[in-house]
Amino acid sequence: MTTCTEHQGQVPATVPAYSRPQRVTQARVLRSEWTKLRTQPSTAWALASAAAAIIGFGVAYSLLREARPPHGAAAAGAFDPAAISLAGVQLAQIAAGVLGVLLITSEYASGLIRATFAAVPRRLPVLWGKAALLAAATAAVSLPAAVAAFLAGQSILGRQHLAVSLSHPGVARAVLGSALYLAVAALLGLGLGALLRNAAGAISALFGLLFAVQIAAGFLPGNWSGEVGKFLPATAGQAVTTVHPDPAVSLAPWTGFGVFCLYAAAVLGLAAMRMRRGDA
Amino acid sequence: MIEINAVTKRYGATTAVSDLTFTVRPGVVTGFLGPNGAGKTTTMRMILGLDEPDSGSVTVGGRPPRARAAPLAELGGMLDPRAVHPARSGYHHLLALAQTSGIGRSRVDEVIDAVGLRPVAGRPAGRFSLGMGQRLGIAAALLGDPAAVVLDEPVNGLDVGGIRWIRGLLAGLAARGKTVLVSSHLMSEIAQTATRLIVIGRGQLIADTSVAEFIAAAEPAASRVRVRSSDQDALAGLLRAPGVTVEAADGGALTVSGVPAGQVGAAAAAAGITVLELATEQASLEDAFVDLTQDAVEFRATPQPPAGAMPEEKQ
Asked: What is the 8-class DSSP label of residue A220?
């Protein structure tokens, strides 16, 4: 190994002057964050796991339902082939959310955030830059994965004549919505990570928001469960991933997605307030 | 120019910096000295705009640190060389910081060469040695060729060659008219690096002076004579005089100050006392610094109002 001792003899004790104009802009911070995103290994594995979960779980569940097709008219009516092939989104949201959390908590854990904020004293461009790239990267990986899962799933279910086509009303929206849902789940993770500055805490909070509150709402009596449940983050968000959401337990597709976006925006807003004001 | 004006900073119940005022001027290297926990890093965090003072103000080039328009051209800082993403290469670490201000790849390469990181720049920064980490931190601080540079313990973990290199680098920056503030908890280190000296203890200013003055003031009190003889009590009686102190030291020796060693030996010889050991002890700068900080801390600890008398901390 070459140590500093061995080569310091050739190192001049000066750093050349640099007089080019410098200014911080949102676009430049975006480039900087892109450099960080693509050179952080957790990005690649989290996005790869998300894609693997979408396709792998979608294919596996489609094979299962092909082997056990619905019996009787009622079961056939409730059968949702698109949802079956997109079932992996449930699993992929964990990878997307954790990616969002780690994108910011890794900077707090290492102390890198201080170098970042010394370079970007206004701080918030860093959060917006991370958010924009995270949402774009998650959607860019999830959309082809969702299309692949849908096509693979329908070709499996088609062997039992249970498939739907992408041109069927609401189907393309559900496939696109799956990618959008995952992008916003990642933003929710980023917001929680920036707010709590700690990976373990933020991941726990993310699981709480995406899973635990839904389970808790299930204990509410009768139709309360459905009425309250509609507005909970994951239920609201997943309306857009469903071809025919049941109005008793789900909001309309884009309304639900809007509610989910509001949750993410609220958490990011709180995170921005804490980031801008407090000590780094 | 960095100006710290009546700054107080608390973390919970702990007062890290209390009513601190000093100015760091361009063109010289200013040493920032204090024992561990004295508030050096807290002060540097406030200079870098990372922490907000509870009261008082910090300005860099006349402006609050967070109002910098060209941050990396106005101020460069290194707080913790371990503050990198462990899996990201040194090169990409620097590139990401440079890109925030539109600084290009050629400048990143130039700085990597200047600090001698070329052979390791492509490796994950988490696997850097402490010395390489320091160089990476210094490279980050110098990316924008800033008018002011703030480095927290930059020679920590460096070998002798590395320390010499940093001294040359800092002197070169000062010669180019830059404001340079370098912290250390070791006086000997600062004495060879800095021209000006800010000393703090328990978050309070103890000295704002030049290194030369500090050394000159420290020296007269610093030389003492250590003596062991066949009759310590008699010798002590002979030496005691106004302006001379005689104290028992370890190993049955006496420590005498105010009299040169030759005079101690002559007094013993005249009285027929056998001298077993006679030596002049040059108290180090380190001792002078420790004495100074301890005295100041003890002296200042009582008359200061308690932390509770200050305005409430904002969260």
From this structure: S
CA distance B198 to chain A (A): 23
Does some domain include residue B259? yes
Chain A residues touching residue B168 (CB < 8 angstroms): 13-14
Q: Which of B45, B88, B144 sits opposite A22 (nearest CB)?
A: B144
Angle, vertex CA B117, rays to CA B116 and CA B121, nearest 5: 160
Tokens read off for B177: 């008219």
Residue-wise pLDDT tens digits, B152-205: 999 887 888 888 999 999 999 999 999 999 999 888 888 888 999 999 988 999
Distance of alpha carbon A126 from alpha carbon A24, whole angstroms = 11
Sort out which chain B residues have CB atoms less than 8 A from A119's CB and list them: 71-72, 97, 100-101
Residues B174 and B238 occupy one common structural domain:
no
* Cα-based angle A26, A27, A30 (whole degrees, multiple of 5): 85
Helices (H) and strands (E) in chain B, counts: 11, 13
B237 and B213 housed in the same domain: no
Same domain? B39 vs B131: yes
Residues A5, B135: C-beta atoms closer than 8 Å: no
Provide the number of structural domains found in chain B. Answer: 2
Burial class (CB in 10 A: 0-12, 13-18, 19+), B269: exposed
Q: Residue A259 carries which side chain, given as an amino acid letter?
A: V
Q: Are residues B71 and B131 in the same domain?
A: yes
| DSSP 8-state class, residue B302 | T
The answer to whether the CB atoms of A22 and B102 lie below 8 A apart is: yes
**Pair (B205, B233) in one structural domain:** no
Distance between CA atoms of B312 and B315, rounded to whole angstroms? 9
Q: Which CATH number fits the domain that encloses residue B213?
A: 3.40.50.300
Both B110 and B258 in one domain: the answer is: no
- For B301, other C-beta atoms within 10 Å of its C-beta total 11
The type of residue at A64 is L
Say yes or no: B32 and B177 in one domain: yes
Q: DSSP letter at A79? A: -
Q: B224 — phi, psi (to 5°)?
A: -135, 160
B294 pLDDT band, cuts 50/70/90, is low
Same domain? For B194 and B264 the reply is no
Highest mean pLDDT among A205-219, B43-57, B250-264, B289-303: B43-57
β-sheet with B55-60: strand ranges across:
B14-24, B2-11, B55-60
User: Residue B99 belongs to what domain range?
Assistant: 2-217+293-299
Would you call A263 exposed, middle or buried from its count of C-beta atoms within 10 A (0-12, 13-18, 19+)?
A: buried
Q: Which secondary-structure segment (H or E) carries B280?
A: strand B275-282
**Residue A11 and residue B138 in contact, taking contact as beta carbons nearer than 8 Å:** no
Distance CA B180, CA B241 (A): 47
Residue A173 in contact with partner chain B when CB distance is under 8 A:
no
CATH of the domain at B232: 3.30.70
- CA A105/CA B297 separation, integer angstroms: 38
The model carries a pTM of 0.85
pLDDT in tens, B69-121: 899 999 999 999 889 999 999 999 999 999 999 999 999 999 999 999 999 99
Residue in the block written with tokens 């480039």: A31
